[in-house]
Design a protein that fits this description.
The complex is a heterodimer of chains A (781) and B (265).
Chain A (H helix, E strand, L loop, with lengths): L14 H5 L15 E7 L5 E7 L1 H4 L4 E6 H6 L31 E2 L5 E7 L2 H8 L3 E6 L6 H4 L15 E8 L1 H9 L3 E9 L11 E7 L4 E6 L4 H10 L9 E4 L15 H13 L3 E4 L2 H7 L6 E9 L5 E13 L26 E10 L13 H19 L3 H8 L6 E2 L5 E2 L4 H11 L5 H10 L3 E10 L7 H6 L8 E7 L5 E5 L8 H13 L6 E4 L17 H27 L7 E4 L2 E4 L5 E3 H10 L12 E6 L8 E11 L4 E12 L6 H21 L29 E5 L17 H18 L10 H10 L2
Parallel strand pairs in A: 1-12, 10-11, 14-15, 20-21, 27-28
Antiparallel strand pairs in A: 1-5, 2-4, 2-6, 3-5, 7-15, 8-13, 9-10, 9-12, 13-14, 16-17, 18-26, 19-20, 19-25, 22-23, 23-24, 26-27
Chain B lengths: L4 E4 L3 H9 L4 E4 L5 H6 L7 E4 L9 E4 L2 E5 L4 H5 L2 H6 L1 H7 L5 H6 L2 H7 L6 H7 L3 E4 L3 E3 H4 E3 L2 E2 L7 E7 L3 E8 L6 E10 L2 E7 L7 E2 L1 H9 L24 H19 L1
Parallel strand pairs in B: 1-3, 2-3
Antiparallel strand pairs in B: 4-5, 5-10, 6-7, 6-10, 8-9, 11-12, 12-13, 13-14
Classes of the chains: A alpha+beta (781), B alpha+beta (265).
Chain lengths: 781, 265
């Protein structure tokens, strides 16, 4: 069964339904009596709500009801929460302002929901929403985090003076300061990480169904973690107790982090369904997606990196201001702290690190995790700084990195993380060889004869996946544990169902999880089904984000398989009158080692369920559950090299080569890993070259459609050159590290280092649009 | 509030009478702008009169160097026309780079010209080719037709039936596409014909498509790509937006003009 087991290039089982239009997404769900919800949203970035008049809307054709925030408050529905507590360095708790599912007193960004209209058709709901009269008193708005901290800036939440949510630090400030004071060289860089819109292909959607007969709720939703959605909606929003709330995340068309969180719409549609007695469906249109999906990134940082006379890094000091938008989204607080500043050591042995992070409210969409979540911000900061240092110190970028690589493991960084394994030089060497780094000068010369400026840049990234263990994240402020669960059900005929708390929204779990089972039990992959995304079917689980499904979710499956195999061996040993320790599972059979005695897998399964002849005292059945809590994060790492040609006449950048050399630990399915890397690279290149959320000064979103928000397209991208230098991860039974985010983490600095190399000007911010590159290139003359 | 009545016209006269009877009627052809605008509820016409089934508005006629293109021709049809390609390949090149394949198989030349989006490609070609816009009532010279952002000389209910022009000796189009929308952030169409050199710029002017007369003079004296680079382009009359400042567009006007001349040969 090597062709279907771990390491095999198995074609994705789920693609048949996706490619033939047979996927079933939330918006495809139709239930009897279902009506359509349309949200009335604030057109202002900041305003007091003086009054809301829904009477005209209620009288419109087809309208079932119109509901506003006062009714929601009266019914005891709670505010949205941020689930990770961060304390400022003075010990005070983060300042969480109230986020009401429907705004009552104040709106704080364009798109803030104020009412919902429910009607027979979407058009009727939309017509009636225009008849809802909201009397606003406009207030001054603030958009940039740096401005929000200034004295006299508009105040967004009464709880947060000067819009400061927390002022947090990590590392040893005194040690870093001392090393900087004594350094031979200090490199200073200002780094901006641009704000991004997630742009999942499937917009967010939800269908809330209240069954008055059973006093039971069902919520279909575009979620990366349905169990977490149920937990949060029950525990904090008082929608319904967990046993009376079923959350189903069916096929989900991309998440990138933006579908981790609980948004107002799920809560409002469930509540509205009970209030009106009809199921209520809402699907975001693309404008709503741009306005209200949690954005990513948006950091502004000042960096000091100190070197000794031998070009070894002696200290890193970082001061970051992170824009969290108008409200604290579910995991917004951990992104610019424990997912960011803990990665500031990168692949380097840095004796002293200190980072200070201030998070700030602004009149913009909430900001939360987006593919990479904190780690791209850390990597971009560090790798742009390393490149700048190499240029200022007059040393090759590869040599500067080599000199500072961590070379022995485990390695304790000064910022919490303990790296368990890696070989950074292997990836650097592989990438440089694949990129023909040494031949660059000749290529640059050839390009200059064509009038093109050619540049090359590298990035050595590290990231931390599979946030763990639960006890550790709990001590850092997480409101949840970050384990995963699995149940392996062997049916009486030997087919297998795996129920996993991981959730696939593009990752291919139905294939990779099945490969693990196929390899272990030796049964055909078609006889294995992966069940996920439904709280009524699957035991409690924690969902998919942070590249955790392989390292944590599959490890839980492996643990459940251990138990299943152990029981199957006991049964086989009993039936074949052999010793349990002599039984091996191979090619779909249980064999007595060293003999010709075998039993097919299905016969053992059948024996477990007929229970006619089981070992004394054994319970019938063959079904096991496991909860797996890892012992550490995993640490994927690698080296990316990008080569570009800039047209100096227009500032257009063309990527002529992109090499990615990654260490993902053991690989379950190389084809799926390549697909993940391709997608991640496209997203990272999108951030560096094309994407950027822009609000005007009044808080109107200028990039609210694809007319103005530039997404990467196939012709913006080169063919990628991928390779792997894998060191197995010692922290989980499969030795896997995770590959979902690496591409988006490692690529932006490689690209920016290449462009700035080409134009000979380091002063360039993302996205490196033709206009910006043209101006920066001109400034060097 | 947003209901609209759909009408399908078979002749030009029928289309005109249909729209005359409507309270706030709009002609629709490919609908590449209008339908999207209606979906966003930024336009709410009482009636739509569909022009795509009027035979008289279809077809391409080429006699010698005289070209007549029916207004209902799609961009894909213009792009792939061997008859046009033989005498004015620059126009096929321009049509083949509008939008994406879906847009090119729905959008029409008449619709694009009547809409006069300041970032659309066709207006630059019309102006540089000194085309005549043939309506149900009259012929209008391109110089008089494009009057401002989304504004044309078309009167109430007046309908573009075709466009005509005399193929120039040489013509070329160079477009710098907006990275997001891929509309022209600056597009320059150059043509050298019996009436001299004409240079038209789209995507850049704050009042829409315009002729760059200094470049016309420079190219009239010296038809070569480098001739345009010494021309001063004043950013004062150019657009500034999220994607490109007037100063950057002024540079693009020069570079695209140079590349258009190079493409024209």
């Amino acid at each position: 069964m090597g062709v279907e087991g771990v390491g095999a290039r198995v074609a994705r089982k789920e693609d048949k339904r996706f490619l033939t239009g047979k996927g079933r997404y939330t918006d495809d769900m139709v239930v009897p009596g279902m009506k359509y919800g349309y949200f009335v949203r604030s057109p202002h970035a900041h305003a007091k709500i003086k009054s809301i008049d829904i009477s005209a809307a209620k009288a419109m054709p087809g309208v079932i009801d119109a509901l506003d925030g006062k009714q929601l408050l009266a019914d005891g529905i709670g505010n949205l929460i941020c689930g990770w507590m961060i304390h400022s360095k003075d010990g005070s708790a983060m300042k969480m302002g109230a986020w009401r599912p429907l705004a009552v007193e104040t709106v704080r960004y364009v798109g803030d929901a104020v009412a919902i209209v429910i009607a027979d058709s979407l058009d009727e709901a939309r017509d009636a929403a225009e008849a809802v009269v909201v009397d606003y008193e406009e207030l001054p708005a603030v958009i940039e985090a740096v401005d929000a901290l200034k004295p006299g800036a508009p105040q967004i939440h009464p709880e947060a003076a000067n819009n400061l949510i927390f002022d947090w630090e990590i590392g040893d400030a005194a040690a870093a300061d001392q090393a900087i004071a004594q350094a031979e060289h200090v490199i200073e860089v200002d780094i901006v990480n641009n704000r991004l819109s997630p742009n999942a292909m499937e917009p967010r959607a939800t269908l809330g169904i209240y069954d008055a007969g059973d006093d039971h709720y069902t919520c279909y939703t575009t979620s990366q973690n349905p169990h977490l959605a149920r937990l949060v909606m029950s525990a904090f929003y008082n929608v319904a107790p967990e046993n009376k709330l079923r959350v189903i995340a069916p096929d989900v068309g991309g998440g990138f982090g933006s579908k981790i969180y609980i948004y107002p719409e799920e809560i409002v549609c469930l509540w509205a369904s009970k209030k009106t007695g009809v199921p209520v469906k809402w699907t975001a249109d693309r404008t709503e997606a741009f306005l209200t999906d949690a954005h990513g990134r948006d950091h502004v940082s000042k960096v000091k990196m100190a070197f000794d006379a031998d070009n070894r890094i002696t200290a890193l000091k970082v001061d970051t201001i992170a824009n969290l938008g108008a409200y604290m989204s579910l995991f917004s607080s951990c992104v610019p702290t424990y997912l960011y500043a803990t990665l500031l050591s990168g692949q380097y042995d840095i004796p002293a690190i200190h980072a200070n992070v201030r998070t700030v409210y602004t009149n913009t969409a909430p900001v939360d995790a987006y593919r990479g979540a904190g780690r791209p911000e850390a990597t971009y900061l560090l790798e742009r700084t390393m490149e700048t240092a190499a240029r200022e110190l007059g040393i090759s970028p590869a040599e500067l990195r080599r000199k500072n690589f961590i070379r022995s493991f485990p390695h304790q960084t000064p910022v919490i993380l303990n790296y368990d394994a890696g070989d950074y030089e292997a990836s650097l060497n592989a990438a440089m060889q694949a990129a023909d780094w040494n031949g660059f000068a000749a290529r640059k010369e050839e390009a200059s004869q064509r009038g093109m400026k050619r540049g090359i840049g590298m990035s050595c990234y590290i990231e931390a996946c599979g946030l763990a263990p639960s006890q550790a994240v709990g001590s850092l402020g997480a409101g949840v544990g970050l384990w995963e669960s699995a149940e392996v059900r062997v049916n009486a005929v030997g087919t297998v169902e795996v129920l996993t708390g991981s959730h696939s929204h593009g990752q291919g779990h139905e294939t990779t999880f099945a490969q693990l089972v196929a390899g272990r039990l030796g049964v055909p992959i078609d006889s294995i089904s992966i069940v996920h995304g439904d709280t009524d079917k699957v035991q409690m689980g924690m969902g998919t984000y942070g590249s955790r499904s392989g390292a944590v979710g599959m490890s839980a499956v492996a643990k459940a398989l251990d138990k299943v195999e152990a029981k199957a061996k006991k049964i086989a040993a009993h039936l074949m009158e052999a010793d349990e320790s002599d039984i091996v599972i191979e090619n779909g059979e249980l064999k007595v080692a060293g003999t010709d005695k075998t039993l097919p897998w299905f016969q053992v399964a059948l024996a477990a369920y007929t229970a006619h002849n089981l070992p004394a005292g054994m319970e019938p059945g063959l079904k096991e559950t496991a909860f797996y809590d890892p012992s550490n994060f995993t640490f994927p790492a690698g080296c990316y090299i990008c080569e570009v040609e800039v047209d100096p006449e227009t500032g257009t950048t063309k990527i002529v080569q992109f090499v990615a050399a990654d260490d993902f630990g053991n690989i379950i399915n190389p084809m799926i890993v390549e697909g993940q890397v391709h997608g991640g690279l496209a997203q990272g290149i999108g951030q560096a070259l094309l994407e950027g959320v822009h609000y005007d000064e009044s808080g109107q979103l200028l990039t609210a459609s694809y007319m103005d928000y530039a997404m990467p397209r196939a012709d913006d991208l080169p063919s990628f050159d991928l390779s792997h230098q894998n060191t197995p991860c010692p922290s989980n039974p499969l030795g896997v590290k995770g590959c979902g985010e690496a591409g988006a983490i490692g690529s932006p600095p490689a690209l920016m280092n290449a462009i700035t190399d080409a134009i000979g000007n380091n002063m360039l911010t993302m996205p490196a649009t033709p206009q910006k590159v043209w101006m920066a290139a001109r400034a060097t003359h | 509030m947003y209901q609209t009545n759909y009408h399908r016209a078979s002749t030009v006269d029928e289309a005109v009478s249909m729209i005359t009877g409507a309270s706030e009627g709009k002609y629709v052809s490919g609908g590449m702008t209008l339908i999207a605008t209606m979906k966003q509820r930024l336009a709410a016409p009482s009636d739509l009169v569909d022009l795509r089934h009027i035979e008289a508005m279809k077809g391409i006629q080429v006699e010698g160097r005289k070209v007549r293109i029916g207004a209902a021709l799609t961009h894909a049809e213009v792009a792939s026309s061997a008859a046009i390609g033989a005498i004015c390949p620059a126009l096929c090149d321009l049509a083949g780079r509008i939008g994406d394949p879906h847009v090119r198989h729905m959008g029409t030349i008449g619709g694009s010209i009547a809409n006069n989006d300041p970032a659309a490609d066709y207006p630059a070609a019309m102006l540089a080719l000194n085309a005549r816009i043939v309506t149900n009532k009259r012929e209008i010279a391109a110089d008089d037709f494009f009057t401002g952002l989304f504004e044309t000389a078309l009167e109430e209910a007046e309908l573009i039936a075709a466009i005509s022009f005399e193929a120039p000796e040489r013509a070329g189009y160079a477009k710098f596409a907006n990275p997001a929308s891929r509309y022209a952030m600056t597009g320059v169409f150059v043509a050298k014909g019996s009436g001299g050199v004409r240079v038209a710029v789209t995507g850049a002017g704050s009042s829409g498509v315009f002729r760059q007369s200094a470049m016309e003079q420079a190219l009239g004296a010296n038809w070569s790509p480098d001739a345009v680079m010494s021309v001063d382009v004043d950013p004062a009359a150019l657009m500034s937006d999220l994607h490109a400042s007037a100063e950057y567009r002024a540079n693009l006007v020069k570079v695209m003009a140079k590349r258009a001349v190079a493409a024209a040969g």
